[in-house]
Write a structure and sequence with these properties.
The complex is a heterodimer of chains A (164) and B (728). Chain A folds into two domains: 76 residues, Roll (Ubiquitin-like (UB roll)), CATH 3.10.20; 77 residues, Orthogonal Bundle (DNA polymerase, domain 1). Chain A is of the alpha+beta class and 164 residues long. Chain A starts with a strand and ends with a helix. The radius of gyration of chain A is 15 Å and the shape is globular. Chain B is of the alpha+beta class and 728 residues long. Chain B folds into three domains: 209 residues, 2-Layer Sandwich (Aldehyde Oxidoreductase, domain 4), CATH 3.30.365.10; 145 residues, 2-Layer Sandwich (Aldehyde Oxidoreductase, domain 4); 318 residues, Aldehyde oxidase/xanthine dehydrogenase, molybdopterin binding domain (Aldehyde Oxidoreductase, domain 4). Chain B has a seven-stranded mixed beta sheet. A six-stranded mixed beta sheet of chain B has the order 1-9-2-3-4-5, sandwiched between helices. The longest helix of chain B has 28 residues. Classes of the chains: A alpha+beta (164), B alpha+beta (728). Chains A and B meet through helix 1, helix 2, helix 3, helix 4 and helix 5 of A and helix 5, helix 7 and helix 16 of B.
Chain lengths: 164, 728
């Protein structure tokens, strides 16, 4: 049974009329045409579809739309401000922390969630937080370096982002 | 070949038309189409006849053109922006950035004013596909020459405009200037002035010497990074078209299982669902992909059982039984003579299981048919092959099919084949709507063209001075790449059984194909493992033993570079320290890899602590890109060393997702150090694959040094190591 589900997507109110049992990933990619969030495995194993829901990282392929009703969802499209990259995105660029780029949105969102809860993580803490995010190209070393680079500069920006 | 004098034809809106009929005419038509699409500007076209020597990709001077069909390679636009066209595709390997650098270098324009259009069959020169680490090696020189030619034409045009002789002019920053009075200059945009200029390149213009490079050779960040960190980068699955339907397709439970019946009645009741059936192709389509997938689950199917009786245990015996085709890859000296000279004979067999490509982006395609034309967006390494397949499937003329290749989310050889593209084309025709086919992860693990399982028998001999005097190498089904030893061996024979990695009919229970460094990964695993076995038999440390049996000075230099960076002392194995070494020549790229591992003797689990790789791939266009590729090879390679194997039984693939098929993760990451061995006198060689090919052997050798067990099967899982330790 279709229902109107309202939530905040990257700071803007959206309303989708569809089955609340559908997974957020497909609603984002198809109904809302936010294609930055990627499908990888459909079972929550790979992390490519990671988005932030009320500050927490979630696998959108396993998250029914009903669960985000009234909540705030941030996707990869929500990090940059106009042409200005978020410091975490800039750090991925600066460190060459991507190759094919398919896992990158999920990787960045997972790292973003880590920095929200722990602004200055150690390398071990970064690796631990990203353990569930796969990258077939093998950019692991550079991803850790990128998150390290972003961690110093990030605190202000996160507050800034959350406040807007 | 006689040098031909080139005169640019300056025309406002017409193009020369070659004689009617034949392939040349077809290309001419496509070229006209291209020029229409391209708008004004200076276009450089490569003509036929050049460049077969370039297929060898040898020393500088021997390199030349690319394929011998006439097509456009680059355009300097009326705004002075440079656009390069390449039938290669970007799948993460960073070729786009390196090609942009080559264009910027040769044309003296800022890097930011260079664009690349990749893998669009309507505008890019024909290309057989992106594989074999060949984009920079083979396409790069052609692009460089086209750019050098464009620069020459611009200087010629400027000579008239500035009233100065051509040799009194130089180029910088997108402009031609007078050497003796640099303020006298004219920009490329002003020179072209809205005109259309077509240049046919019929001889090789001189290109800049490496010593004069200011862009090429400098570490440069990826040009596609910004699009990829913002989510703006479009992959095939991100293409949205009006009326687009997403397909979910009925699949067999096992390879070789034939469909007996399909009851689609329940699926048909789902609102908005379209069910189609065309022979064995049964699919549900919907404007939401997840709804299509749910409806698919409502279809009740019956399949005949697969006739396959193969599984991970009996596959190796089967591979030897089915062996048909035999290739002697190399033979020199006399094996009997070698055996006579030997004081020690060493025989061993090696094995490798099937491995998945498991690209992050599953195979995806979108097809839209409009009358006698079709448009395709596909995650493919071979857009021109896809163009032909779609044309054949739909009964269209090849030029009427346009394949575009958006960003490809990893390929590694797995996207040479494009079954999903043909499926999308069939379904677009059956439904009359644009259709997307995007494989689920389960479909990906089922229809992948796996790295083939392979087995090896090696018989070798050492003489009293610990020189390798005999090498009798038999490879079953791996493919022959990198199967020739790099060592100086007087009596040797390398035999390949069963053809290449694609596999002949009846060999493999499912599709197999090229997998990043195809053939080489397992050939180097067998070869370099066996070299360590011999070193131990010789009572020598594995580094000294290798150096004592090598004569190739370039290889020795690379080995020394790796040893210097590794900065550890090798001892006769097993030393308990866990050091390993493996070296190879991958299609002209030389490398030596050294690693340190720790083995948990209770669980058999391996922790790779450190990997050092020294690589000589000739002139390096983008050192940052090369480092990324080598690091990626090392990290990805850990998977096929330690965990990755496709489990299968009677045609069914038992691994369906990442819960059982384990890829390398953050916690696996060793300390990685890359040494780029400077060799600018050699034209750029490949870089996307070489470093992954040494991983199996370097880890096997390090495990042996750590724990005293010789692992002869890939992957070297904790369970296999534990078993080997128990037998010790």
């Amino acid at each position: 049974m279709d229902k109107t589900i309202r939530f905040k997507l990257n700071g803007k109110e959206v309303a989708v009329e569809t089955s609340p049992e559908r997974m957020l990933l497909w609603v984002l990619r198809t109904d809302l045409e936010h294609t930055g969030t990627k499908y990888g495995c459909g079972e929550g194993y790979c992390g490519f579809c990671t988005v932030i829901v009320d500050g927490q990282p979630e696998r959108s392929c396993r998250l029914p739309l009903a669960k985000v009703e009234g909540k705030s969802v941030v996707t990869i499209e929500g990090l940059s401000k106009g042409s200005l990259l978020h410091p975490l995105q800039q750090a991925f660029v600066d460190n060459g922390a991507l190759q094919c780029g398919y896992c990158t949105p999920g990787m960045i969102m997972e790292a973003y969630a880590l920095l929200l809860r722990k602004p200055n993580p150690t390398e071990a803490e970064i690796a631990d937080a990203l353990e569930g995010n796969l990258c077939r190209c093998g950019t692991h070393k550079r991803v850790i370096a990128a998150v390290r680079q972003a961690s110093g500069a990030l605190k202000m920006k996160v507050v800034d982002h959350e406040a807007r | 070949m006689k040098p031909v004098k080139i005169k640019p034809r300056v025309k406002d809106d017409e193009y020369p038309t070659p004689g009617p009929g034949g392939l040349a005419d077809q290309w001419a038509l496509e070229r006209r189409e291209f020029l229409k699409l391209a708008g004004g500007g200076l276009v450089v076209i490569f003509s036929a006849g050049e460049g077969l020597d370039a297929q060898m990709g040898g020393l500088r001077g021997a390199d030349g053109g690319y394929p011998d069909d006439p097509n456009a390679y680059l355009k300097v636009g009326t705004d002075g922006r440079v656009t390069g066209f390449s039938g290669k595709i970007e799948m993460g390997q960073g070729t786009t950035t390196a090609l942009q650098m080559m264009l910027a270098e040769e044309l003296d324009v800022p890097l930011a004013s260079v664009d690349m259009i990749m893998g669009d069959t309507a505008v890019c020169p024909y290309d057989a596909g992106t594989f074999g680490s060949r984009s920079i090696k083979y396409f790069g020189p052609a692009l460089r020459q086209a750019a050098a030619e464009a620069r020459g034409v611009l200087i010629r045009l400027a000579s008239a405009k500035l009233g100065a002789a051509e040799d009194a002019l130089a180029t910088r920053d997108g402009a031609v200037y007078v050497l003796k009075s640099p303020s006298k200059k004219v920009t490329y945009a002003d020179l072209i002035g809205g005109k259309k200029i077509e240049v046919r390149l019929e001889k090789k213009p001189p290109i800049k010497p490496v010593a004069k490079h200011t862009v090429s050779g400098k570490p440069t960040l990826r040009s596609d990074a910004r699009a990829k960190v913002t989510g703006e980068a479009k992959f095939s699955g991100d293409i949205r078209l009006p009326g687009l339907l997403y397909a979910a397709i009925v699949r067999p439970p096992a390879h070789g299982a034939k469909l007996k019946s399909a009851d689609t009645s329940a699926a048909e009741k789902v609102p908005g669902v379209k069910v189609v059936r065309d022979g064995d192709l049964v699919a549900v389509l919907h404007e939401k992909p997840d709804v299509a997938a749910e409806a698919l689950a409502l279809i009740k199917t019956e399949f005949e059982p697969s006739p396959s009786k193969l599984d991970n245990s009996n596959i190796f015996a089967h591979l030897k039984e089915v062996t048909a085709k035999t290739d002697v890859v190399i033979e020199s000296g006399n094996l009997d003579e070698g055996a006579k000279l030997a004081t020690k004979l060493i025989e061993k067999s090696y094995f490798a299981q099937y491995v998945a490509h498991s690209t992050s982006e599953p195979h995806t395609a979108v097809v839209r048919i409009d009358g006698d034309k079709a448009e395709v967006w596909a995650s493919t390494q071979s857009p021109f092959r896809a163009q032909q397949e779609v044309a054949r499937t739909l009964g269209l003329d090849v030029p009427n099919v346009r394949v575009r290749t958006p960003f490809v989310g990893g390929g590694f050889g797995g996207k040479n084949a494009g079954a999903q593209i043909v499926e999308a084309a069939r379904l677009a025709k059956l439904t009359g709507k644009p259709v997307q086919v995007a494989w689920s992860r389960k479909e990906e693990f089922f229809f992948d063209t796996f790295r083939p399982a392979a087995t090896y028998d090696i018989r070798s001999g050492l003489d009293a001075r610990n020189k390798i005097v005999l090498w009798d190498y038999k490879n079953y089904h791996a493919g022959s790449r990198s199967s020739q030893p790099v060592y100086d061996i007087p009596h040797k024979r390398v035999t390949g059984y069963g053809g290449g990695f694609g596999g002949a009919e009846g060999v493999h229970p499912f599709g197999t194909g090229a997998w990043r460094g195809p053939g080489s990964n397992t050939n180097i695993f067998a070869t370099e493992s066996h070299i360590d076995v011999m070193a131990e038999a010789a009572g020598m440390d594995p580094l000294s033993f290798r150096l004592a049996n090598l004569t190739d000075a370039r290889m020795k230099k690379v080995v020394h570079a790796a040893a210097d960076a590794f900065d550890r002392t090798f001892a006769t194995a097993p030393s308990g320290r866990g050091y390993g070494i493996a070296i190879t020549d991958y299609l002209g790229t030389y490398l030596a890899t050294m690693a340190e591992v720790a083995v948990n003797r209770e669980t058999g689990a391996v922790r790779v602590l450190r990997v050092v790789c020294a690589q000589d791939s000739g002139e390096v266009v983008n050192p940052e890109g090369s480092r990324m590729q080598i690091e990626g090879c090392i990290t990805m390679g850990l998977g096929y060393c330690l965990t990755e194997e496709i489990r299968f039984k009677n045609g069914a693939v038992l691994d369906e997702n990442y819960d059982t098929y384990e890829l390398p993760r953050m916690s696996w990451l060793p300390k990685i150090e890359v040494v780029l061995v400077d060799n600018p006198d050699l034209a750029p060689q490949g870089c996307g694959e070489p470093a992954i090919t040494a991983m199996g052997a370097v880890i096997a050798n390090a495990i042996h040094d750590a724990a005293g067990v010789r692992m002869v099967m890939l992957p070297m899982t904790a369970a296999r190591i534990k078993e080997a330790l128990a037998k010790k």
